[in-house]
Amino acid sequence: MKKKNIFLKSTIILIIGGIITKILGFIIRIIYTRIVGAEVLGLYSLVTPTYSLLITIATMALPITISKLVAESKESNLKIISTSTILIMSINFFVVIVMLFCAKFIAINLLHEERCYLLIIAMSLTFPIISLSSIIKGYYYGKQNMIPNVVSNIIEQLVRGVLIYLFVPPLMAKSEILAASSLFVFSFIEEIVSIFVNLLFLPKNIKIKKQNLIPSKSTFKSILSISLPTVSSRIIGNIGYFFEPIILTNLLLFSGYSNEYILIQYGAYNAYTITILTVPSFFITAISSALVPEISKHLQDRDNSSMLKRLKEALAFALFIGIGYSIILYFFDDVILKSLYNTSLGLNYIKILTPIFPLFYLEAILMSFLQAINKAHITMKITIIGVIVKLGVLALTSLMHIGMYSLIASEIANIVLVVFLNFYYVHKFTKNL
User: Fold this and answer.
1) 241 in helix, strand or coil?
2) 12, 204 in Cβ contact below 8 A?
3) Cβ atoms of residues 60 and 94 within 8 Å
4) Are 325 and 356 in contact (CB under 8 A)?
5) pLDDT for 364-394, tens place per residue?
6) pLDDT at residue 47, rounded to an integer
7) Cβ 2 vs Cβ 227: under 8 Å
8) Which CA distances in Å does 141 have to 13, 14, 137?
9) Is the pLDDT of residue 421 over 90?
10) What whole-number distance in Å separates Cα of residue 114 and Cα of residue 84?
11) Structural domain containing residue 190
């Protein structure tokens, strides 16, 4: 009963925090998009895939890794934290240096938009502080203490809102590039605030011993054994996301579409369509975050019945949320889009993708379960297949003169295939439990 209460309490806390954070995020996004307009959103959207790829490499899937190690650990967690910090700072140093040299090449030769150069430089400088923050968040997830992360996330959003309200209008008056780059600068400030808030929740009676701060070879191996398969899967997924605007831009330009069309439509797809479609994602993130340490503990205790019960509960909840939201969105998409962003851009994409997205919400639950039972290499294999299919469909349909609908087709193919494969492997590993 106690274990069940911890899981439910963790999930409920994360959901409540997610609702507050999502509402604040929506208000902030609405303010920002109305200030900067479609072209700045397009510029930001072009560099977002590069950002996603690099932040995945920089953070090395540490929240999941540390969460799992802390949940299973019977000893001091300081060694896990210290070893993780040294490892991640070394990786970040390398990533930042590489990006400082490669930013101009990516902006001009791959994205065909020189104005993205400053955005890439700005985002690179945020990686070390975001990585440090992810280590602390992973520790609290492993302890199944969700309150520090919830509080820090809410404060982050409040800080972001104030910064955007105060600084984006004057920056927009000076330069569109400064307005777009400011979001990455704000992220740096937010993460510093987040670290400070999380540190306030640390137990006051922690005894720091010198030997616990010295990196451990065994801990280092444990971190890599979990993070490498997990981060490899994410890197592969983000490589696909990284090449998405590159393939799309180059092939649509080749097919006769203008750069202005691509910039505005791709910006609308990312800023409006995907944002509205993924509104319930905080529910899924909450369940997935609470599920990993819970399943890890049941696995350690060989409690297979509780493990399967948690999985079924998580999937049922995700499906209920996904179907319910999709029904509302399908009939009121125009009202929701117009009310939030005062635009109709991206409306046609929402109508096509809405029936597919209940499947999308199951993906995170299934992948979290596979990672928790030490099958991260399977999620990597699924991701590779999904990326190959998505980019293949994107490339083929981009030459069929259907514009941005080539991206929609590739998204649908990816969601359906990846969820099907996840279901197949989860069933394979659980049917005999």
Assistant:
1) helix
2) no
3) no
4) no
5) 888 888 877 878 788 888 988 999 999 999 9
6) 87
7) no
8) 12, 10, 6
9) yes
10) 36
11) 2-430
pLDDT at 1: 46
Query: What tokens were used for 54?
Result: 């690099």
| Cα 185 from Cα 95, distance rounded (Å) | 18
The tens digit of pLDDT for each residue in 64-107 reads: 778 777 776 655 577 778 888 888 888 889 989 999 998 899 88
Number of independent structural domains in the chain: 1
Q: What is the DSSP letter of 208?
A: -
CB atoms within 10 A of CB 127: 23
For residues 265 and 181, what is the distance between their CA atoms, to the nearest angstrom?
20
User: What is the residue-averaged pLDDT of the chain?
Assistant: 83
Q: Tell me the C-alpha distance between 15 and 368, whole Å.
A: 17
Q: Quick one: pLDDT at residue 420? A: 94
CA neighbor of 167 nearest in space, from 151, 155, 180, 149: 180
CA distance 103 to 121: 6
Reduce the secondary structure of 72-133 to three states and give it as a string: HCCCCCHHHHHHHHHHHHHHHHHHHHHHHHHHHHHHHHHCCCCCHHHHHHHHHCCHHHHHHH
Q: Which two tokens stand for residue 255?
A: 């097919």
d(CA 141, CA 131): 15
Q: List helix spans (H) across 258-343.
A: 259-268, 274-277, 281-300, 304-341
- How far apart, in Å, are the Cα atoms of 211 and each of 65, 76, 132, 184, 300? 22, 10, 21, 37, 27
Q: How confident is the model at residue 5 (pLDDT cuts 50, 70, 90)?
A: low
Q: What pTM value is reported for the model?
A: 0.69
415 closest CA partner among 353, 328, 365: 353
Task: From 3, 243, 251, select the one nearest 106 (Cα to Cα).
Answer: 243
How far is Cα 137 from Cα 150, in angstroms, rounded to an integer? Answer: 10
Tokens of 400: 């069929």
How confident is the model over 204-255, as pLDDT tens digits?
A: 666 666 666 666 677 777 777 777 777 777 788 778 888 888 898 889 988 8
Residue with tokens 């985002």: 123
Residue 203 has pLDDT above 80, yes or no: no
As given in the structure block, the two tokens for residue 269 are 């797809």
Q: Say how far apart CA 84 and CA 88 lie, in whole Å.
A: 6
Provide the CA 70 distance to its chain's centre, in angstroms. Answer: 22
Joined tokens for residue 290: 């609470």
User: Could you tell me the CA-to-CA distances from 246 to 150, 312, 406 in Å, in that order?
Assistant: 36, 39, 13
What type of residue is 244?
Answer: E
